[in-house]
Structures are given as C-alpha cells and as structure tokens.
Design goal:
This protein is α+β, with helices and mostly antiparallel strands and 160 residues long. Helices cover 39% and strands 22% of the residues. The chain contains 7 helices and 4 strands; from the N terminus they run H-H-H-E-H-E-E-H-H-E-H. Strand 2 and strand 3 form a beta hairpin.
Length: 160
C-alpha cells in the first residue's frame, strides 16, 4: 500500500508539474496565428522584427540654388520609390515644422546591419550631397508593417 501511494504521488507530481510552459499556458497563444504569413514577414514569436528607423534632418549643405535643390529632391523621391519596390523601405514621409530641424522619417526593412543601412542611405542624392542628414536607430516593431503597402497604390490621386 505504501508503494502504491508513493507511485501515485509521483505520477500526480509529474502530470501536474512535468508539463512545459506552452503545454500549461494556453491563454497567451493566438488562435489566428498564420505560420506561413509570420515566416514570410520575418516575424518572431511575438509577431515582431527589427527595422532601422531613420530621422532625416536638415543637412550641412546650405546652397540656395533652386534648380540644384529641386533636382536633388527629385532624385530623393525617385530613390524612395526604388527602395519601396525593392522591399527595403516601408515608411517614408515628411515631418511638420519643428525646432530640431527634423524633416522626415524612413523605416528601413530587411536590412541586416547598421553599416548596410548607412550604405543604403548614401544612395539618396539629397543625403549624399548634404541637403539632408540623418539619425538612425534600430527599432523593434510589428512584422506586419509592410502589409499596408499594397493599399497605398489605391488611395493616392497625385504623385509627388
């Protein structure tokens, strides 16, 4: 009888405490989880991934040559469009006037290192010639962020 009690106690202990956290804790699992989509977007277990957040700011080039400025910012817009098509840029846009000379933001996607991100930024003519400068940060955000891009082609009436 003594042995039956010991065996029963051992079995109950193993059944109660022998489960892994994921087996016991089902309250935090997502019934809508789509493994294929998560893998396609590069999401981790939390649906997040690393990006680079770039804050564009006024550069050191103080030229007042309007033709040069217009041509450079035309190249800036062309570069933005190219990077979006390549899947390397998922957010870009200007900021309102502010006292920090911040002009806009980029969120870079699928870039592995800070060095590669900086190299990529040098493909922008406005940055390369100093009309714009930047601050860059690693940023951890939703892996689903790129999913808004297809809708953008359906909502604009005028292109920059």
């Amino acid at each position: 009888m003594k042995y039956i009690l010991i065996i029963t106690a051992t079995l109950l202990t193993n059944l109660t405490f022998g489960q892994t956290k994921s087996e016991k804790d089902t309250t935090n699992s997502n019934p809508n989880y789509d493994k294929v989509l998560a893998e396609k977007l590069g999401g981790d277990d939390y649906g997040m991934k690393s990006y680079f957040l770039v804050i564009l700011k006024t550069g050191t080039n103080k030229t007042e040559d309007k033709e040069f400025i217009n041509k450079s910012f035309g190249g800036h817009m062309d570069n933005i469009n190219r990077l979006v098509k390549e899947g390397k840029l998922i957010v870009a846009g200007p900021l309102g006037k502010n006292d920090k000379t911040y002009r806009g933001i980029f969120i870079l996607n699928n870039i592995k290192t800070m060095e590669k991100a900086k190299e990529l930024l040098q493909t922008d003519p406005a940055i390369k010639i100093g009309l714009l400068d930047y601050e860059i940060f690693s940023w951890y955000g939703s892996a689903a962020l790129p999913e808004y891009l297809p809708a953008t082609e359906k909502i604009w009436r005028k292109q920059f």
